[in-house]
Specification:
The structure is a single chain. By secondary structure, the protein is α/β, with parallel strands linked by helices. 52% of the residues lie in helices and 13% in strands. Helix 2 links the parallel strand 2 and strand 3. The termini are far apart.
C-alpha cells in the first residue's frame, strides 16, 4: 500500500522505515527539510509540501499524521480537509485528548473523510520491536488500513487492535500512559529506598538485572531501567525534573469525572508536578510552620 505520513520526528521516521521494510510505499512530509531528506535516504519518497504529498497518493488516499497534540493537529486536519475527498482516510497517531478526537472525527465525517485515532506506543524502539497500537474509528476504515497496522505492529495479530468507535483508541492510550506514570514512580521509589540503605552498599544495576528474570516485577520498563543504571548508576548530570506531556492529567481528570479512585496514577502525576517546581514554596512554608509552633530550626538556602 501507499501511504502519506506527515510528521517525521524520530518516531515518525522510524514508522516510515518499518513500513518501507514491510513492502509499503511511504510519501513523507515535514517542515524540517533535513527530516524529509532522511526518509528519502531510507528509500521512501520525501516531498516538500502537503500538496505534493496528497497528489502523490492513489485514491482512496490514506494519510497518517504524527504531529504534537492540540493546535498542530487541528491545523493539519484543516489543511487536509481542503485537499482530500470523500472516501479518503486520515489516521491520527499522536497523543491527542480523546474528546478532541471525537470532535475531529465528526467534523471530517461531514466531508465523507474517515478518521482513525491510533494511540501508538513503542517510542524509539518501535522500528525494531514493532508498535503497540490502540485503534479507534469505524470498522470499515480500520479494515481498509489493516495491512499498514499489521506491518507496524509487533506481529500480524499481536500488539494492536480495534478497540472501539472514534476516540476509543486515544482513550485507551491515555489510560496506558497513566499506568506508565504509576509504574515508573514505583520503580523510582523502590530504587531510591535501596540506594539510601547505604550500609548494604547495594549494586542497583545488579538488583535490576536479578529482577529482570523470573521476578513478578519484570518488565520492558525494568529492562530500560537496568540499562540506565549500567550506564550511569549515580545519575550524574541528570536533573530531578520529570515532564508530563498531558496524558496523566487527562487520565486523572477522567477518573474524577467518572468517580473512579486512581490513587497511584494520581499521586505519580503529583510527584511529577513536584519535580517541576523549582521554587518549592509550599515546602518552605511547611518548614516555617514547624519553626513557628515548635521552634524547630530552619535550614537556610545556600
Amino acid at each position: 500500500m501507499k501511504i502519506g505520513l506527515i510528521g517525521l520526528g524520530k518516531m515518525g521516521a522510524n514508522m516510515a522505515q518499518r513500513l518501507h521494510n514491510g513492502g509499503h510505499q511511504v510519501v513523507g512530509y515535514d517542515r524540517d527539510k533535513a527530516a524529509v531528506k532522511r526518509i528519502s535516504d531510507q528509500g521512501n519518497e520525501g516531498v516538500e509540501s502537503i500538496d505534493d504529498l496528497v497528489s502523490n497518493l492513489p485514491s482512496p488516499k490514506i494519510v497518517w499524521i504524527m504531529v504534537p497534540a492540540g493546535k498542530p493537529v487541528d491545523d493539519t486536519l484543516d489543511l487536509l480537509m481542503k485537499k482530500l475527498k470523500s472516501g479518503d482516510i486520515i489516521i491520527e497517531g499522536g497523543n491527542s485528548y480523546y474528546r478532541d478526537s471525537i470532535r475531529r472525527s465528526k467534523k471530517l465525517a461531514e466531508a465523507g473523510i474517515g478518521m482513525i485515532d491510533a494511540g501508538v506506543s513503542g517510542g524509539i524502539w518501535g522500528l525494531k520491536e514493532g508498535y503497540s497500537m490502540m485503534v479507534g474509528g469505524e470498522a470499515k476504515y480500520v479494515n481498509q488500513v489493516r495491512p499498514i497496522l499489521e506491518t507496524l505492529a509487533p506481529g500480524k495479530n499481536q500488539g494492536w487492535g480495534h478497540v472501539g468507535p472514534s476516540g476509543a483508541g486515544h482513550f485507551v492510550k491515555m489510560v496506558h500512559n497513566g499506568i506508565e506514570y504509576g509504574l515508573m514512580e514505583a520503580y523510582a521509589e523502590g530504587f531510591e529506598l535501596m540506594r539510601k540503605k547505604s550500609d548494604f552498599a547495594l549494586d542497583l544495576h545488579q538488583v535490576a538485572e536479578i529482577w529482570r528474570f523470573g521476578s513478578v516485577v519484570r518488565s520492558w520498563l525494568l529492562d530500560l531501567t537496568a540499562s540506565a543504571l549500567k550506564d550511569n548508576g549515580d545519575m550524574k548530570d541528570i536533573a530531578p525534573y520529570v515532564a508530563d506531556s498531558g496524558e496523566g492529567r487527562w487520565t486523572t481528570l477522567e477518573a474524577i469525572d467518572l468517580g473512579v479512585s486512581l490513587p497511584i496514577i494520581g499521586q505519580s502525576l503529583y510527584e511529577r508536578f513536584a519535580s517541576q517546581d523549582k521554587e518549592q514554596y509550599g515546602k518552605k512554608l511547611l518548614a516555617m510552620m514547624r519553626h513557628e509552633f515548635g521552634g524547630h530550626a530552619v535550614v537556610e538556602e545556600k
